[in-house]
């Protein structure tokens, strides 16, 4: 009888079992790493089988090209799991005017806020945009950014001095002397200037500070004839006359002329009648003389006037004051006045 080689058979069986185990493990791990991934690109959704975990490699396997301005959206950059989705967002052109400079940019987002973030465009608190941050920007839209900047500015302003006149008795009328020279002052004004896209659009005075106070010029003058008007003004005059005053209008009751008649409303000097025109005797007050007519009965003074007219009844120390309507002239009547010649 032949002898059986049990030792050789045992070794051979062990080798066979090891090979089966290796094949089993290889199939197991290969099956475990194989996955189904969803790709959403170019308006198409497809399912693909892959063993890759990186989105770019998976897209490359499917010959899906990614451009310079495209964006890949995936749950993970290097560990895509079965059932997960990879989205490809294609870059699109968009017109952006930033601070007056227009350029074509590319974006994969839709709302203004996301677009600005992607393009790394920062807005200051005062900048303006022609869309709200939440608005969707369409391809035909144009994003306009107005850059607003404020700056402080200081400006030096000269403060003019005033002239103070003092009348004294130790100088002859008309003679004067300077007691104190006037000196201008200085003030600093602070402005806030607003610029839009580099151009100044407004300025606002923020405040001011007087650096040097002006000093008034003081002049002494010899006492001259003067009177004080109702508003407190001091007026010099060459002479004064007490006169009898009446009132007239341009109408028929005063001049015998009606609208349309030659010379209606025209003074002896050739000017048009108006409040402030008075009629005088040229032998007493020459035509063209500047006057101030002061009331003596406590009523309102006629005030500053000019001798431009004459009248048949206006002789000697008489004066006729022009009024625009007949009722006002009739109410004035006849009264004494003081007439100052201020030429």
From TrEMBL:
Cited PANTHER family: CELL WALL-BINDING PROTEIN YOCH, RESUSCITATION-PROMOTING FACTOR RPFB
The protein's name: G5 domain-containing protein
One GO-annotated biological process of the protein: peptidoglycan turnover
GO cellular component: outer membrane
Any one GO molecular-function label of the UniProt entry: hydrolase activity, hydrolyzing O-glycosyl compounds
Organism: Isachenkonia alkalipeptolytica
Lineage, highest ranks first: Bacteria, Bacillati, Bacillota, Clostridia, Eubacteriales
Keyword Signal among record annotations: yes
Residues annotated as domain G5: 145-225
InterPro entries assigned to the protein according to its UniProt record, in alphabetical order: 3D_dom, DUF348, G5_dom, Resuscitation_pf_RpfB, RlpA-like_sf
UniProt entry keywords in alphabetical sequence: Signal
């Amino acid at each position: 009888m032949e002898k059986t080689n049990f030792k050789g058979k045992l070794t051979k069986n062990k080798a066979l079992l090891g090979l089966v185990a290796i094949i089993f493990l290889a199939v197991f791990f290969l099956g475990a790493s194989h996955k189904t991934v969803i790709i959403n690109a170019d308006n198409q959704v497809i399912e693909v089988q892959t063993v890759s975990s990186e989105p770019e490699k998976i897209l490359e396997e499917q010959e899906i090209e990614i451009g310079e301005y495209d964006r890949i959206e995936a749950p993970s950059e290097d560990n895509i799991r079965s059932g997960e989705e990879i989205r490809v967002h294609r870059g699109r052109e968009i017109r952006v005017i930033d601070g007056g400079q227009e350029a074509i940019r590319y974006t994969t987002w839709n709302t203004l806020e996301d677009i600005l973030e992607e393009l790394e465009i920062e807005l200051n608190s005062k900048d303006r945009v022609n869309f709200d941050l939440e608005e969707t920007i369409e391809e035909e839209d144009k994003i306009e950014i107005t850059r607003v900047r404020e700056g402080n500015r200081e400006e030096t302003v000269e403060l003019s001095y005033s002239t103070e006149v003092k009348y004294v008795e130790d100088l002859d009328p008309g003679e004067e002397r300077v007691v104190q020279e006037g000196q201008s002052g200085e003030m600093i004004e602070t402005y806030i200037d607003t610029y839009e896209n580099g151009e100044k659009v407004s300025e606002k005075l923020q405040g001011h500070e007087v650096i040097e106070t002006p000093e008034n010029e003081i002049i002494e003058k010899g006492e001259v004839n003067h009177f004080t008007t109702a508003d407190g003004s001091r007026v010099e005059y060459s002479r004064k006359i007490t006169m009898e005053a009446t009132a007239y209008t341009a109408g028929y009751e005063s001049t015998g002329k009606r609208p349309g008649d030659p010379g209606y409303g025209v003074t002896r000097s050739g000017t048009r009648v108006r409040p402030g025109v008075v009629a005088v005797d040229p032998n007493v007050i020459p035509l063209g003389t500047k006057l101030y007519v002061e009331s003596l009965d406590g009523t309102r003074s006629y005030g500053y006037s000019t001798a431009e007219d004459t009248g048949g009844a206006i002789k000697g120390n008489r004066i006729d004051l022009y009024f625009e309507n007949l009722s006002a002239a009739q109410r004035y009547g006849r009264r004494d006045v003081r007439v100052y010649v201020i030429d």
